[in-house]
Queue: 3 jobs
Job 1
Amino acid sequence: MKTPRKASGSIMRKYYQLILVIVCFVSIVTLLIYRHEYYRLRYVLEVLNFFGKPGLSEIEFCGPGFNATMLSEIVRNTSMGVRETPPLFQQIDDNFYSYSSFLRSYQKYEKLSPMRAHNIDTIVVGRAHIKPNFRCNIWLEDTDKPKVGRFSFEVVSEPINDYSLYVFQCYLNKDLGKPKGVSFYVNDYNINPIHAPIIKVIQVNTKRKLRESASIRFVNNIVPAICVIPNQVPLVSRDSFIEFLVFHHMMGVNHFTIYDSMISEDIIRRLNLLPSDITQWDIQFFPLNYPYVFAKSYSIVRNAIELDCLFRHFRLDKEETNKASHAMVLSWDEFLVPRVHSNIKAVIDDYDPTRKLRTIVIKPLLFCLNQEIDSNTEIGYPDIMRKSHYYMTPQIMKSVYIRNLDSMSVFEDIYNLTSASKVAPLEIIAAQKYTECRDPKAYHPSGLGYNETQMQVFQHKFEGAMLRFGQSLVSDKIYRLYRSGQIWEKTHNEFVRDML
């Protein structure tokens, strides 16, 4: 009788152990599920803390209390920033400064020309009255010693204030490897060339691939790009910064390359707070250093930037997605304003339907920020919408050029931009410049422009083309975010460069 009782007690203990194991297992699974749900909820709360509560309007989706961890992730994965080799002015000697170099003869070891197997073009700004006399070295991958190249040069601009724009060419007749850099030094055998600065080369395509349906033209085939440079007086307010990007984005431009060394990291971070589905733009920042006095060399530096802009966009085949078909250079205070059409793409499609023009010349109009505000405009509109008269003052005005990259089948076509050019009439489009109008011959320490009495002397004409886009601008999501203080806390007379 004792043996069965022992067996029964042993069975009960096994059942208790099994139940404990099951309870323990269920507890562990429940704990894991709870932990998983907890972290999901915590992640959702972080996102809500960053973007705002569901159902809020676009102007409320991000506030001053954003999460730093989320911000760092966005900045880390940003599409904006320096993604390519930046152009920088480097001194060759006292009279010449190199800017950027492009390798245009290297075809991935395929179809190399027996003559000038490697040809490197370097954009150079220098004195107009001095003839370049240099030697050059080409630095190859996987080698520490350079190969001596052959030097030549071309003058690609008329002299401006004793400055000219050059293209220094350094080439090899034999394929000795893939070039990675080039250096120029004075043609003097007493000078050691090893100390000359090395410029990293950027590979470009020697030919631009055409579309298979090149005979069929649609407005959607037009992909304009803008390269932005500082104003001649290198100050840009935050209002002007946002207004420029938003307005030209409304005009159909999604690609911006900004050449400005004073753009701070704070600007890049805050622009990245905007979701890509709202902006739908691609912005590249490049620093810009000045080799000479900025006011005297501004025009020639602008020419150098335009050439760099064309070189960089030409290196990308048209078959690739969303690569620029047209490129132009604008400063922060210049706006391309259509008269009849709704955007720049429609203007190009209508004015050049066959895409044969190499250059479309846009006439400039000067709108003085120190002129009276048009009382008929809306109070909430920005100044560019409330200045409705352009003036004829002694200030020097230069045209804006829209360069058609699709008309350039080979790289050498970039050096012949005036082969097929045409001036667009003001009835179609104009380059409207918004700046303080002042006497260029008179110096004032505070930089004040003409007063109201002096402004009345100059002839002026009404132009209300910009007013057409006033409501669209102030209703734009990005502009509303900025005006509401969600991107920057709004203060008056605050300059972008004050953020450095």
Job 2
Amino acid sequence: MLNLYIQFTLGGWNVDSRILCPCPTYKQVVSSTLGKEVCYPRLGCFTDDPPWSGVPGRLLTGLPESPEHMNITFSLYTRETGNNSQVISAINSSTIQKSHFSSRRNTSFIIHGFGSTGKKGWVVEMCLLLLEVENINCIAVDWQQGANGTYVSAVNNIRVIGAEVAYFIKTLQKIFRYSLHKIHLIGHSLGAHTAGEAGRRIQGIRRITGLDPAGPYFEGTPPEVRLDPSDADFVDVIHSNHHMCISGLGMYNTTGHLDFYPNGGTVMPGCMLINFVPTDATIIGGCHHSRSHEFYFESILYPTGYLGYPCETYKSFESVNCFPCPQEGCPMMGHHADRFSAKLKRVNQKYFLNTAADPPFATWRQKVFVKLSGVKKMKGDINLVFHDTEGKTKEYEIASGVLSQDQVYTKYLDVEINPKNTKKIEFLWNKTIFTLLWARLGAENVHIIHGEDGHINQSSFPGALPGVLYRRSRE
């Protein structure tokens, strides 16, 4: 067997750990140390029997460390705490009662992944942004000491973290008679499967959001050991870095009610394909993997810029077979996915969209028709420039090469300017250096279709000439 060792990241952190690919044989694993068990007060017992170890896709061994060793903490953020937090504990429940936790509010738990932390960075930023738009209890779950060992040990540890989250929720039920319908678990990478473990232990949680659930040791495994639709009343997932042995860190398969695959879910615009760190260790996928929580963050403020279109594959989406939205509409990827009326119609619903390379990453898909007028044929290119109300502009090519009079050119654009904020659309054409000086090309008609909310919004600009600006009609 060829042993190939690589260094990689989960959650954007470089980790000096090893993944073996190809994996050891099933016989090698099951003949090792299966059948062991460890028990912790309050949380129960944990075994390494199948399906937790020794099954295809999960050929690993080991047991989770103790909660004391991992130093798990829960930090509460509310509008009363401002940028600070209050450390609360289910073991010492008086800390919850004395805190700013309110049983009248909804509660979001944010759970980080491998090599990360819940005491700073994106987890805290997520809580603070959520509090700007919603009056909630936001709890940052930190298990940094359990996430900073090897990846295999972290995989085993999430079972204890999930059990602790479930125990915390049960404590809220006991103290406040708190409703599970007020709880939303948001987890990135291993944190997504941690949320799934909590949901498996305490049925009836309103929502779990998985942000690029970790792929290694979870892809293709039984539902008990990974996030799946039965873990909450509603499970939505963002896939941003498919797991393909050594080339991706997230899951490929659907694992929720709504599964979103931005840019196909493998490589994200604005990220290098391979990242390099100062130690010269090659890491694959860190930026792509982290995009999932960045998309969720931006979706809080730009909900309509993350519309997902139902499709079987990304190739089909790219070949424009999935536009506009069907009669039931399209869901919004990220924070507002639960607004979709058909979200519980079935499990494993696939949705695709494209994003921009830079924050806020939002785009609005539009179908553009341009009918030309002028000389019969000429070489060059035609473009549309979108202007918003704040002076921002974005230019998109519609066609290039030999352009023909009376021909209709069609292009699907993922425009980075919200149609509601579009002030002007400019039609431009550029002729080649060999084109006759007196040759002119115009647009007899520019027609734009927006595929939103199950119906088609149309904007037309008849008689467009080069360089002339047209105001978009407002509805």
Job 3
Amino acid sequence: MEYNTLLQIAKDYGSPLYVYDAEKIKFQYKRLISAFGKVKQLKLNYAMKALSNISVLKLFNQLGTGLDTVSIQEVQLGLKAGFKPEQIIFTPNGVSLAEIEKAASFGVQINIDNLSVLEQFGTKHPETPVCIRINPHVMAGANTNISVGHIDSKFGISIHQIPHLLRIVENTKMNINGIHMHTGSDILDIDVFLYASEILFDTAKNFKNLEFIDFGSGFKVPYKLGDIETNIEELGEKLSIRFNEFCKDYGKPLTLAFEPGKFLVSEAGYFLTKVNVVKQTTSTVFAQVDSGFNHLIRPMLYGSQHEIINISNPNGRERFYSVVGYICETDTFANNRRINEITEDDILAFKNAGAYCYSMASNYNSRYRPAEVLWYDKKAHLIRKQETFDDILHNQIEIDL
């Protein structure tokens, strides 16, 4: 999006503010479709935990994706957005059997990742098709918080437990229609991903009624100029060939499924903040903005870098700033970052703010969560109002003391 457009949106709707570019979302979706164009049956399930605004979900429904959900509330949001139950996969971790049964009652695809629940669910509902999430014991992902396929991970059923898994399936006579894995986010080494895929193919041979194989996602996007990213075109070429070979050996065509989240929405998002104060200390120049890690926690939680552009002065002389928020503890978005000269009331745009940004926002310090805008068909559409004081009090109960 052009900086002037973002500035006008900030003027119209205030700050802090999240803005999402629908055209970028569509572009990323088409990239994935094209990369795996040699696969006859491809299904992309948008991982809605990345960004779950109902208008964004409706956009994905319009594009033709399915949905990857991790909670019963996400399932209900997906249905509310117009997705059909068969377009939704439910992949929780550590939830109760009751929650899984509730999801199954809606008719969505169930994905189970532990032996205990698999046995309980299979005993009670042997007729319900179930996907099994396998832990391939392959380390992938750039941060330990988002690497989920290694041996110490809480996610998935270990490949070393396959004999036990098969015994449960045989004893319950349950219907296994899919095999799934997810190694982690920010995958860079395609060979590591392909190695994990071979483990999944070997596991799939144990099941005769599969309809799909789900390879998760975790594709890395660039966070700054010159940053490395997953070569999705190379992965698409290599995995498509291997998948087609497997389907031939398996004896019937299967669906290749992915669950992209960050890849589809990260680069489409901008977080706009206003500079309240430029503060010079003995060693640092701080740009203090009207937000904090209550709105964008990723730099504090993951150490992630978001490129910051002064869209009020994009061609100004570059200086070094530490960009910090208004939360009353260490609240740093960027340390000693080179940014075009900043003055008070300038608007700063944080890039790559589409994934895991608003969805992880909170009311810490009793601050309001910001508004959201979707730039669609060359128009700005308000898709979530900024919260008010009434929202802070909503559901609180005052008692007489």
